[in-house]
Amino acid sequence: MVDMRSLDLDKRDAVCKSAVRLINQLGFDGVSIAKIAKDAHVSPATIYIYFENKEDMLKQLYLQLKQDMVDFILKDFKPGQDHKANFKHLFYQHWFFFYQYPDSFAFIEQFANSPLLTCSCAEMGFRFYQPIMAIIHGAQQAGAVKPISQALYNALVFAPLLQLAKLHASGRQSIQPQDLEQVFEIIWAGLKTD
Amino acid sequence: MVDMRSLDLDKRDAVCKSAVRLINQLGFDGVSIAKIAKDAHVSPATIYIYFENKEDMLKQLYLQLKQDMVDFILKDFKPGQDHKANFKHLFYQHWFFFYQYPDSFAFIEQFANSPLLTCSCAEMGFRFYQPIMAIIHGAQQAGAVKPISQALYNALVFAPLLQLAKLHASGRQSIQPQDLEQVFEIIWAGLKTD
DNA sequence: AATTAATAAATGAATATTCATTAAAGGAGA
DNA sequence: TCTCCTTTAATGAATATTCATTTATTAATT
């Protein structure tokens, strides 16, 4: 088969960026394919070349952003022997991602808290998270932190972080470095083995 | 002025119930006034008697459910001298609400994570929470827990609870009493003064 | 020439909201 | 008690608009 005209990934990217921005601004019910297309300087029909339909587009966006987040958090990270330091690194990398990519963060949260997050979709997102969970599992095996299930760990550590990031992003309260440090130390005090 | 025909609060209630259920099932973008009206056995026009418009309806719903939640949590609660016990009570009342009213919980979360949550709306919701925050403030004044800001406290204590409730509600993982107990003890270990 | 990306335009269904009308409830007067 | 009158709750139908998606066509690339 001869080579054919290839897809323009810049165009797809423009659609994704417009979709994320508009959805964060107007919500799922306030946004339409037409609005996204207009914002991305693209025909509505073009969107259907890259995505099966609207729901498929949103799901692909969610999974892609979630993967991007995990990649960012684990970039250049090599776990060492100091489990508290490892833990602290993961903690702050999460924060940096929320801080640097507020749009990605807001979209992920809006999607994850809507019924659009189907079971299969949630499971795929969870699978992306496995490498991070493996590091935590390592600390547990070494006896550095209390042996609790992944779900509990996730809730105890990352949920507070998420909550603070949302507060910060909303502009209603500014979260300072010393706040984060305080939260980190409290969480660590609860988790570490006595 | 003569008395007039009074509003049928049952009708309003039916609209609210239908709205919450359908929105949890289909999301903000999947639901319409017509669908809600049909589900509530009411004319679409009737909805506009009780609510200014769609957005107003959603906001009223959010604030009402949030107030209901705080009322539930504080029902019959009289704080005593044992700060850990007070704290534990608030913790479990939150859980019981999430457990008993999963629809209210899901709606609150979906709304709070969407751009529909405007600043004024968030502030009103926060004001409802003041009585709970006052109890926590009391424990801090007494020196029972570390002196941290309300925002940090909220993030550390209730965010993990929320996260576990979501996991439980999604059906992906069942949260058992011993899980909750474990989480409570870990949070308390981090917060209590040494 | 073959293949397909990209689009403008079109489609029918669904949307939020309004409007003209009816139903119900109670007060005033007899 | 009966009859009218006022007021407003309630509604079905209609409105203009917007929606997601498809189709027919053009443009670009090999």
Give a topology summary.
The structure is a homodimer of 194-residue chains.
Chain A: H1 9-26, H2 33-39, H3 44-50, H4 54-74, H5 83-100, H6 102-112, H7 119-128, H8 130-141, H9 150-170, H10 177-191
Helix pairs in contact in A: 1-2, 1-6, 4-5, 4-6, 4-7, 5-8, 5-9
The first copy, chain A, binds a DNA duplex (30 and 30 nucleotides) through residues 1-8, 11, 32-34, 42-46, 48-49, 53-54.
What does it look like?
With 194 residues, chain A is an all-alpha fold. Chain A has two domains: 1-50, Homeodomain-like (Arc Repressor Mutant, subunit A), CATH 1.10.10; 62-191, Orthogonal Bundle (Tetracycline Repressor, domain 2). Chain A is built from ten helices and no strands. In chain A, helix 4 (54-74) crosses helix 6 (102-112) and helix 5 (83-100) packs antiparallel against helix 8. The longest helix of chain A is centred in the N-terminal third of the chain and has 21 residues, at 54-74. Chain A is elongated and about 60 Å long. The model of chain A has no long low-confidence stretch (mean pLDDT 93). At the A-B interface, helix 1, helix 6, helix 7, helix 9 and helix 10 of A face helix 1, helix 6, helix 7, helix 9 and helix 10 of B. The structure holds a DNA duplex (30 and 30 nucleotides).
Summarize the structure.
The structure is a homodimer of 194-residue chains. Chain A is mostly helical and 194 residues long.
